[in-house]
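Work package 3, deliverable 3.1, input record:
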Amino acid sequence: MYRYSEFDTAFLAERNAQFRAQVERRIDGSLTEDEFKPLRLMNGLYLQLHAYMLRVAIPYGTLSSGQMRQLALLAEKWDKGYGHFTTRQNIQYNWPKLNDVPDMLDALAEVGMHAIQTSGNTIRNVTADHFAGAAADEVADPRPYAELLRQWSTDHPEFQFMPRKFKIAITGSENDRAVIKAHDIGLQLVERDGVLGARVIVGGGLGRTPMIGKELSEFVAFDDLLAYLEATVSVWNQIGRRDNKYKARIKITVHEHGIDAIRAKVNERFLKVRPQFKGADMNLLEEIKGHFAPPTFREASVASFESAYTNDPVFRSWVDTNIAPHKNADHAIVTISIKKHGHTPGDATAEQMRVMADLAEEFAYDELRISHEQNVILPHVHKSDLPAIHARLKEHELATANIGLISDIIACPGMDYCALATARSIPVAQEIATRFDDLKLEHDIGHLKIKISGCINACGHHHVGHIGILGLDRAGVENYQITLGGDATETAAVGDRTGPGFAYDEIVPAVERIVETYLEQRDSAEETFLETYRRVGMAPFKTALYPEARANAA
Amino acid sequence: MARAFTPKVVTANDLLDGDVIYLTEDDQWSRELTEAELITDEAHAQVRLLDASRQANKIVGAYLADAIAGEDGPEPTHFREDFRRTGPSNYAHGKQETSPQPRA
């Protein structure tokens, strides 16, 4: 866990004092909204449909129990008793008052957190594999490098007024849980001849023009990586389009210039930038690595776990869906579902946050993670503690056994909160989850990811959902387009549109028809939705969704 | 040909709490759409928007929103404005949890 240095603490205190004065000047009328808006956005404060919204960065999704408790305190003291975990591993408070925000930021600073660069045309919160440091399949923990990137990008003078926002994701595993191919830059740690470095993916992104990232370099050693990234961002900062915000992201630059031309420019720039990096970054990285030293994993018998697994079917079902293999065989990675059927995906109450913080402190070496799939993770848990954890989670509506299943839905806030949204997402997610829970089909359906966005900007990652749902405003009525076959992993793909959209009251039945078609078409219970879709293609799903079209054509 | 003018209300967000507010005929800001001034003349609408925009120390982001005359006052014509006057659909938060009160 990264611990703030004196420099970090002083920087944040100064920044928060500046913002406090800016808020005061806005309220007393010395600043107009046009003057204030860029200042508040730099500090993560948005104005949404019904209220302000404060977006707090959770760097690379890692939290200590103390930080989680502070997030609970903010929810209780200055909001309505809950927070919303987002697809960028952030937390959003939906109801802060302008007057209170400086106090909220000071409270965050007490635990080494902030809301800097959670908005604006800057490098945003660097996201990481939520299983980092625990996954059995990783080359190295990506978080020390993510922290280095956070320090490099925060207040980076060259990168404060870029053509558009810039998002970096990092993973240490071949199995991509961080959606690196849908980021402006995606980094995958790889080792070559004993040297640690990264494969660099560039130009991925969702939104209006979804693109899967392309390989910029198959290997850049750590010594050179920061200079290489600086060169990449700098090339785009110079040639990226500022004339049209819809063409400003690096994915369009890469698309228009071609990956080879971009690579040549980056290499040229890299040679100029490289001498400025004299190794201070590597010294810092070494120091940061110390903060992320793995805990001393305790040794104990796992007999109690095995007996609970055999004897308690509810516990077994939860273990089968919510537990992932840990690099230490006696340990496990626990994903706590923040997706109870019928609830808002990603919303946790202050009480739930405290329960999870307590569990982390008691059983999980004081660590928590937030996933881009809007769940909370206890990355290191000895298996013998799983029954106790499960029992505690059950008492607080946190024991839903649905990770990776149809009700583990990503949904953006949509038109219930967001000023940019064109339709609602949350109630659609709630109704799909409730419907399939009523049908008791969820476990039979198996691995299936539904992702819902309430507008074309795709915060809900709909393009890479196995079933993607996009809410639009069609002639003043909510309308939902469906895509199938999207994939957010190392085999990333953008889903295909099924055809015309569906009205609000038709969207859940439409999803049901898609799932029925999958169940009819799959060649065995082992074949997942995505595998079936790849094998049989769109046709049977189209027939199920648009029977009239088929009848008319006949 | 220019599109025919449709009735409007002036709406904004409150500077301090972000709440959705509406300009009334007597120059107050109300949290209730039904209390808003329904403007049927285009030139008057522009004047009222300017009146609102000058109150930068009270409000944020004033604009003209479509509305129609209903039994109890103006009503929204688009679902976005319907959500704005009500609050989110997943919790009874925002305007759904407090009684209307006069403002500013």
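Chain B has one domain: 8-88.
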